[in-house]
Amino acid sequence: MTQTHASTDNPAATLVIGGNGKTGRRVAQKLRVQGRPVRIGSRTGAPAFDWNVPGTWGPALEGIDRVYVTYHPDLGFPGAAEQVGAFSEAAVAAGAGRLVLLSGRGEEAARRAEERLKASGADWTVVRASWFNQNFDEDFFLEPVRAGEIALPTADAAEAFVDTDDIADVVVAALTDDRHIGRTYELSGPRLISFADVAAELSKATGREIAYVPVSDAEYRAVLRENGLPQEFADLFRQILDGRNAHLVHGVEEVLGRQPKDFADYAREAAASGVWEV
């Protein structure tokens, strides 16, 4: 394999799976700023892409030579590794030989998907991320923050929350610079914080009381059932927040040459947008 740094003279077309999601939306935007054509891989895309409908993969890959691979709902879910492996083989066969996979820190089940992607013969990069800051303003913690109470079975577990803009910057570098081929990067924020710390930072940023309420695993599973959410989310909490990720990693600095964004800075910016106003 010849190592060449990508240029914008003949920019490659990139398929961004989950291109309307937290990281995919940012990756697509940053690629477009660089003048690189992007196709959004989603069920509402043109053409549509659906992980559960392999017949949509070929049309979505037509004219594409690199892909940002994200999997919904999570790489740790049953069947994910098999789907990622089959898609990766299809991508390479279609001429999309550069694959960047978003994986999770500490998720042993996700490693199977990583290995299946690598086995496809692609030029691969794996980006393992900690929990996203944006889970609190763009995802399942948004309404609890607005309601003023975050109830989770996490006790005093600490996590190095990472910002999705930092993830997107790393992914774009991996998609466009050959130096990242064959590398696995682990990303975290600059400090470990507990969910009680998160509540305190959100309270400070919003100017109102946001409480963290520890609940049992059984209580949390009941909440998931009531809201029609997969029980696997409780399994992920138990696995990821058991201390295995209670240390910092330095992929952001390694790839980008700068410090990752702190949760407090994220909270101030999100609060200023008005997203948590009630």
Keywords:
globular, alpha/beta, 278 residues, disordered N terminus, six-stranded parallel sheet
Detailed description of the structure:
With 278 residues, this protein is α/β, with parallel strands linked by helices. The chain has helices at 22-33, 57-61, 80-93, 108-118, 142-147, 164-176, 195-206, 217-226, 232-240, 251-256, 263-272; strands at 14-17, 38-41, 66-69, 98-104, 123-129, 149-152, 158-159, 183-187, 193-194, 211-214. The strands form 3 sheets. The protein has a 6-stranded parallel sheet, sandwiched between helices. The chain has a two-stranded parallel ribbon with strand order 6-10. The model is unreliable at 1-9 (pLDDT under 50).
- What is the oligomer described by this structure? single chain
Biggest pleated sheet: 6 strands, parallel
Instruction: Tally the beta strands.
Output: 10
Q: Helix- and strand-based class?
A: alpha/beta
> Termini distance?
55 Å
Mean pLDDT level = 91
Question: Shape, please?
Answer: globular
Strand line-up of the largest beta sheet? 2-1-3-4-5-8
Order of helices and strands: EHEHEHEHEHEEHEEHEHHHH
User: Which parts are unreliable, with pLDDT below 50 for 5 consecutive residues or more?
Assistant: 1-9
Beta fraction: 15-25%
Compute the CA-based radius of gyration.
19 Å
Number of DSSP helical runs: 11
Helix content: 25-40%
Summarize the structure.
About 40% of the residues lie in helices and about 15% in strands.
